[in-house]
Amino acid sequence: MPPQTHGRTAYLPAAATLVVADLHVGWAAASNAGPLLDERADLRERLAAAVAATAPETVVLAGDLLHRFGTPRPRAGGTLRTLAGLIRAAGARPVAVAGNHDGGLTDAWPGPVHDAYRLSDGTVVCHGHEAPATDAERYVCGHVHPALTVEGDKRDCFLWVESGYADRPTLVLPAFSTGAAGVRVEQRDGVDSPLVPSLDTVRPGVVVEGETLWFPRLADLRPHLRRR
Question: What domain of life (predicted)?
């Protein structure tokens, strides 16, 4: 069965851990939508809601915490410190895993930065842009920004496969950033992550009003979806 989800996050009860991927802090400042979105408030409110709903002991931010390659702007660093403080104030431990955007993360994150992080239940959380260097009971990652078009609307989604990377259960999270462009998986034969070698085997879990609706395998679903 797929793991528990809350909005765009995943909760692993055996490890009391909430996983969040692809915050892309600084996206608003780098886009024309910046004046329309208080990015810090948006991320803070949605992360606080996920933490309150799951009461984790650990919150792992699974890569691409930052949007800008290289040294982050001061406001982006301030937003990351605000989110880390929010997690600590809720009684949980924040953990940062680096993604391909995070070359400057060590300058902004108030603590160590990991290439991957092993949970107490044997899960390895990584970003997903490169193969993890360690075996695991299951893998959880981001990076892909998966989305699925349902009845003409593009919806962010999870990807889940029982026998995925290294024949282990594998979960790909949607981007937590609402501004990160979603990749329409029904239009593709593959994605740029070694943790998802075949899209045909994955089950999309579409996020609708905070709930996750799990669909059949993409190979079975493709004939019913428009590829346009």
Answer: Archaea
Higher pLDDT, 90 or 134: 90
Q: Report whether pLDDT(150) > 90.
A: no
Q: How far is CA 88 from CA 4, 124, 202, in A?
A: 22, 22, 34
Report pLDDT digits (tens) over 66-107. Answer: 987 677 778 888 999 999 999 999 999 999 999 998 888 998
Smallest Cα–Cα separation from 21: which of 102, 85, 75?
102
Q: Do 61 and 8 meet the contact criterion of CB atoms below 8 Å apart? A: no
Spatial distance between the Cα atoms of 175 and 181, rounded to a whole number of angstroms:
8
Number of H helices, E strands in the chain: 3, 15
| Cβ–Cβ < 8 Å for 96, 111 | yes
pLDDT above 90 for 29:
no
pLDDT digits (tens, 9 = 90+) for 154-163: 899 999 999 9
Give the list of residues 6+ apart from residue 223 with CB closer than 8 angstroms, or none: none
Structural domain boundaries enclosing 120:
4-224
Q: What is the CATH number of the domain that holds 102?
A: 3.60.21
Q: Count the Cβ atoms, other than its own, within 10 Å of residue 59.
A: 26
d(CA 161, CA 145): 16
CA-CA distance, 139 to 168, in Å (whole number)?
Answer: 7
- Are the C-beta atoms of 72 and 104 separated by less than 8 Å? yes
Amino acid identity at 118:
R
Query: Where do we find the tokens 């962010």?
Result: 156
The confidence score (pLDDT) of residue 35 equals 54
> pTM (2 decimals)?
0.94
